[in-house]
Design goal:
Helix 4 runs parallel beside helix 8 and helix 9 runs antiparallel to helix 10 (181-194). The chain has helices at 9-24, 31-38, 42-48, 52-70, 80-96, 98-102, 104-110, 112-138, 146-170, 181-194, 202-214. It is elongated, with a radius of gyration of 19 Å. It is an all-alpha fold. The longest helix has 27 residues, at 112-138.
């Protein structure tokens, strides 16, 4: 049996940093903690990432690449099942990089790289949601005016971007722990898709309600 090659140290550092940032929040994790968690020296870590900001920027770039790869799938939406799958996929990605969402305001205040990129991501999220709503309109699933579509897309972006902050405020000791993943991903997707209910025609509305029931977030 051929053994898998060990992951490079740089990749392992990113994995450890992401796990610690997600669990404790980026402001509360020093590079010395990351090195200790990995069992390597701080000097070894700094050889690969000269600062915590470099680590954050590398993780942010990975997140951004995944998000920009996922968002164009909005144009493939044809019905409520497609819509559910798309939204669930977005929240899975948000959860994977959840420290950025919980600590976004802090990151924006001190990290120029993140600050310079976030607005573009928000705009692309809004464009994707407008595309999704347009596809559902073309499929005769929902009825919206152009202005209603714009408002709804913005509300969906806000919910997607700040849902985990809301969950954290409600339960700061547990909301962002690993065992809360399923609850938060499902609940977030449900809440965003709930914004569509007033605009859906009877059949797709019933279909969405059925999906929300089947994929009910566990307590």
């Amino acid at each position: 049996m051929v053994k898998k090659a060990p992951r490079r140290t740089a990749e392992r550092i990113l994995t450890s940093a992401l796990q610690l940032f997600n669990r404790f929040g980026e402001p509360n994790v020093a590079t010395t903690l990351i090195a200790s968690d990995m069992g390597i020296s701080p000097g070894n870590l700094f050889y690969h990432y000269p600062s915590k900001e470099t680590l954050v920027n590398t993780l942010f770039d990975a997140y951004q690449a995944e998000m920009l790869h996922l968002l164009p799938a909005a144009q493939d939406v044809r019905d409520m099942e497609d819509t559910w799958f798309f939204m669930h996929s977005l929240f899975e990605l948000v959860w994977r990089y959840r420290f950025m969402y919980r600590d976004l305001n802090d990151l924006l205040s001190k990290n120029r790289h993140v600050e310079s990129q976030v607005k573009d991501i928000l705009d692309k999220k809004a464009h994707a949601f407008q595309t999704l709503l347009g596809k559902l309109s073309q499929a005769d699933a929902l009825v919206q005016t152009e202005s209603e579509r714009g408002y709804c897309a913005t509300h969906m972006v806000v919910m997607l971007t700040w849902w985990l902050s809301y969950a954290y405020v409600r339960n700061p000791r547990h909301a962002l722990e690993d065992d809360s993943a399923e609850h938060n991903v499902l609940n977030g997707a449900q809440q965003v898709l709930g914004l569509l209910l007033p605009y859906l025609k009877p059949q797709p509305k019933a279909q969405l309600m059925g999906l929300l029931t089947v994929y009910q977030a566990p307590l």
